[in-house]
Amino acid sequence: MSKCSSFKSFDEFLQKGNFAAKSHEEINNLHGELFDRHVVRETSFENWQSMLDAAKMEYAAKPLA
Fold this sequence. Notes:
The protein is mainly α. The chain is built from four helices and no strands. The protein is globular and about 35 Å long.
């Protein structure tokens, strides 16, 4: 999160926008115009899908410990 926003964590990012998601299912249900606007306003991404895609790519590129 700190690479693309002023937030240290995804939870902090969600709290700023008054969104809540604690499980994978709840995160998968984050979408829509309001959430996209929050993403645009608070990050360097065009929308939630582009932010999610970038996170998936970065996670997949991490070496296994």
